[in-house]
DNA sequence: ATTGAAAGGGTGTCGAT
DNA sequence: ATCGACACCCTTTCAAT
């Protein structure tokens, strides 16, 4: 369903979607037109969702990242729905996942500075009751692959 | 240095970098050529780093995400360097940040299945001694903005 | 310095061989 | 898969503000 050649193309495009078809073709030993068809196929079948611009967060005034762990007030469908609604309304919360273990949710918050976290915290507690909320500031990005381990 | 119009353009491009200049121009009330120039400036000045393809992880056989918290064995320059080197060598570890608080590092691991985590764990402990290692499996993605809160 | 209109060039796409 | 023609879109130039 997905040949090694397709994976190689995906690997190129996840690093730079502006790569000319001629360059892609040279790397995977295919003609530019054939690459075009493969890529169209990958798009139609949902392997490639869309192309996006990678913006330098620091450059646009959002250098700070805070991870927040949350444990639920109650384990009920109502609380879950309310929590989902709360985080959806706060744009600084850019990612929320539900986890196994004693911590229920992990939130990634992107901000101009650590001082701004207080705003997000207050916005959150105003919308939903939580058992525990624990914020950790990102001091350093050790690895940012931003790329999937393909192949 | 960065007008509201520039932010609007960035907001469009971080969602879909294939948006034609004519469409962008219509939204920000600018001609396509003017948009082209603005974007070129944004690239040159480092606001836009590059364009990348968003790949559907599940579709390419990597549906599982595991977050791992690590506390250091010792707080020394040597350990830190060795840890940095260790995570750099393991492709499944796609993101590593150093945090404030009792947990030193947060790792994001992308895998075909939860069973594959054991491989990553063993690869990690073979390379670096750690005080505590704690893995939490992502059960559900509640919010995946994948977009910065601009404007 | 920044804009819009029009010309020019590059690149992707589609057909035929 | 290669070749060639077409079409589209981005880019550049130029006059104007």
TrEMBL record, chains A, B:
PANTHER family in the cross-refs: LEUCINE-RESPONSIVE REGULATORY PROTEIN, TRANSCRIPTIONAL REGULATOR AZLB
Name used for this protein in its record: Lrp/AsnC family transcriptional regulator
One Pfam family here: HTH_24
InterPro entries attached to this UniProt entry: AsnC-type_HTH_dom, Dimeric_a/b-barrel, Tscrpt_reg_AsnC-like, Tscrpt_reg_AsnC/Lrp_C, WH-like_DNA-bd_sf, WH_DNA-bd_sf
Domain HTH asnC-type: 2-63
Record key words, sorted: DNA-binding, Transcription, Transcription regulation
Presence of keyword Transcription: yes
């Amino acid at each position: 369903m997905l040949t090694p050649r397709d994976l190689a193309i995906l690997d190129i495009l996840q690093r730079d979607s502006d790569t000319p078809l001629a360059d892609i073709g040279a790397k995977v030993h295919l003609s530019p037109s054939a690459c075009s068809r493969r890529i169209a196929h990958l798009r139609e079948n949902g392997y490639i969702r869309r192309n996006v611009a990678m913006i330098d967060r620091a450059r646009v005034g959002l250098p700070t990242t805070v991870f927040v762990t949350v444990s639920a007030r109650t384990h009920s469908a109502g609380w879950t729905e309310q929590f989902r609604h709360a985080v959806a309304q706060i744009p600084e919360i850019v990612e929320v996942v539900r986890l196994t273990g004693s911590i229920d949710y992990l939130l990634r918050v992107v901000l101009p500075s650590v001082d701004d976290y207080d705003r997000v915290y207050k916005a959150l507690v105003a919308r939903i009751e939580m058992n525990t909320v624990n914020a950790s500031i990102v001091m350093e990005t050790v690895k940012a692959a931003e790329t999937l381990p393909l192949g």
